[in-house]
Sequence to fold (256 residues):
Amino acid sequence: MEKRLRALGLSSYEAKVFLTLCERGAMDGRTLSKISGVPLGRVYDVLRELENRGAVYVQNSRPKIYAVPDVERAIDNILRSRMEEVQKELSEMESLAEELKKELKVRKKGEELEAFWSFAMGIEKSLNLILQRLESVQKSLLNIATPQELSFFVSEKRKFARVVASLLEKEIELRILTTREVAEIFPPADLRVPEVRIVDELPNKFAVLDNREVLIKVENPLRSGEMLGVIYMNDRRIAEELREHFMELWENGREI
Fold:
């Protein structure tokens, strides 16, 4: 119980005091210190913090009496207080991130990296890399979808729906090419993607992100249709060439 209260943002002493009041009822600070094991020199600071959080109420008698008259309301108040703290921390982190971007951009030496690539091996790592890069898209996404990745997206529908919703909110260019067989298994309505076209054959599977990044999906030569890995490339020249290739396929594709 104490561990879960600490997960809601209470300190160890705050959790001990709160639990003692819940279990033993109203009492003064000195008695509370003895029962909870919180030092007398700390217990009043702890009680003030709990009162500020709306978790403990005070009867201004002599001595003061502390109580938790409504446990459910107290927990709701603790949660609300913690959420406010988290929101404040998040805002501060976002501001810090923006400051770091500006400072590091000024301090960066040398020319912009012409190209960068990495490789994810294995189905799970490959699909997670694809999803991770989709989340970063700002302007455009052109994707030739494989059955395996669509199966993953459908199984992770909530996560994928959140990513697609975020992309649509940005009003980016979002297009998916696939085959009829795949579209029949995973209808566009299930994927919640507005622009999907089908072609008879997809010899190459890749995605172009923001006309700068490329994901090349490597098929397992021993198991047709199974993804062996994904090559990630940050290379504008290759991205532009693959974009042209994608648009040729798109023009020849059929709307569903």
